[in-house]
Amino acid sequence: MAMQINSGAVSAIFSYAYGILHSLLSTYLNATIIYGLALLLSMIIFAILLFILIVLFVYLFSWGERKLMARIQARHGPSYVGKFGLLQNMADVVKLLSKQDITPKNADRLLFHAALPIMYALFVFMLFFMPITSFFDGIGTSISVIIVFALLSISPIILFIAGWSSGNKYSSISAQRSVMVIVSYEVPMLLVVASVALMAHTLNLATIVSMQSKFWYALLLPIGFVLFFILMLAELERPPFDVREADNELIAGWLTDVSAPYYALALFLDYTRMFAGTLMISILFLGGWLGPPILPPFAWIMIKVILVTIFIIILRATTVRMKIGNIIKLGWKYLVPLAVLNLALAFAIATFVLPALH
Question: What are the φ/ψ torsions at residue 302 (nearest 5 degrees)?
Fold first, then answer.
């Protein structure tokens, strides 16, 4: 159950960095210090590569969401700035970042400015434990499932702080709604994740992917797959669960009082959460990076992430927002019992069906 470096990417970077540092600093520093510096450098380089991947996904996803929603609603969407409107997001970023950053008068300045960066760092750190391929894996540990969902469970606290610290009643109500929804849906989510761990006999995400080499868990546990997709929508606060930003009730929710640069960071956070959520769906139920050898593993997992993302966008464009009372009722009255049923089915399949298949 110990933490370990179990990543081909990090190990390759570490070996290269250690060789360079050892040749340059071996006469000045002992081997232990050089080892530590090489490990630190390799993790920094991996973090930069991961950040580049996140930025690319966020940029393309935000553009694709606007184009696809426009097509569904018989509009053109971004089309003038750059080819196919690809530079429209760049123009929007420049516009948002060039505006003045204003702190509300009644806000708790420290918490107000710290909440969103902390939450973003939380999700980036969570991505370190989520393997994108068997080679591109940050921190390998035998309990990566527990760590990922432990980090995910911290987000309601930070969301509440972000809304409460602004000193605005609409932001506070929005933050309370977010906490109510996320806490209500974490119980069935953990039950669904437990069913996947039961099927794979492990809490390691990379091993869960490798155990789906013959059958995706979406095929063996269709109830669990549908449940996890719904629960992840609620966790990400995407339509029809976007009660935190019920604009006809709460203006802009917990972002009501934020200025343009802070709002840009909030948008970046939302799309980063989307990347983490769709990646988790692909890992747990769609076989991760596994696929026919006609494409590399990275291409397969990105295809699955993109397809899940497109379906989420379609839901946003075609569904109406649920009332907060109906969301809570759905979670406790229907999703929790179905999650328990799914766990029982997973036990039966893992005990009687999988041994016969293998």
Answer: -70, -35
Q: Read off the tokens for 47.
A: 């973090």
Question: How far apart (Å, rounded) are the C-alpha atoms in residues 271 and 191?
Answer: 26
- Per the CB < 8 A criterion, the answer to whether 208 and 194 are in contact is no
* Amino acid found at 3: M
pTM value is 0.89
Report the Cα 200 to chain-centroid distance in Å: 22
Residues 287, 231 contacting (CB under 8 angstroms)? no
Phi, psi of 140 (to 5 degrees): -90, 130
User: Residue 94: CB partners within 8 Å, gap ≥ 6?
Assistant: none
* Angle value at C-alpha 54, between 123 and 171, nearest 5 degrees: 50
Is residue 114 pLDDT above 60, yes or no?
yes
Residue 250 has pLDDT above 60, yes or no: no
Dig out the tokens for 57 from the structure: 């996904």
Q: How far apart (Å, rounded) are the C-alpha atoms in residues 54 and 266? A: 14
